[in-house]
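Exercise 7.
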Amino acid sequence: MVAPAGDRPEELRGIIWKKRHWIMRKKAELEARTSAVENLVDLRPSDGGSVHYRGERFSLRIEDSEEGPVQFIQNEDIRVRRPVGTSDDEMLEALESWLKGRLLEELAPLVEKYSALLGVRPAGIRVRKMKTRWGSCGSTGRLTFNLRLVHLHPDATEYVVAHEMCHLRHRDHSCRFRELLDSVLPARIPRTKRVEDLVPGR
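Solution. The predicted structure, written as tokens, is:
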């Protein structure tokens, strides 16, 4: 809780007590939203585990290899060629690097699509882990996307790309922004319960 420096602790406790039901309700809502995107990676070095990729769950099939580095091959499942001696942390780092590459491949044509539709082009795009947002549009025009998008259905990723691209035209969430976003989104993408209703997690 953030409060002015001069506020007395007993006054703050009184405010919290009065708002306790609202606070608990909002906490429960946040936990429910966050749980929708948790446990998307279940990496078990012994037998592989699984990972959500583009809205589907894929089994990870680990094969020991004498050569490095860690390799990923996607078919009906995702085969992982793991050099002998690879640590759990190295496995997770390699998986995240592979997923980042796949997401960048998915983002590139979407950015081109909405650049043509909107007549704007970002200064660049990057992917990284983000705790509270799916994407952001920086003051320089560079777009940043959350690595966790790679786990979600492609329609969710497209929604986030369209959303951030529209911010290159309108920096706020005004009616003009919403109208522009609705005008360029494909009809197949739902207008309710969008990806913005979820919380990326940790």
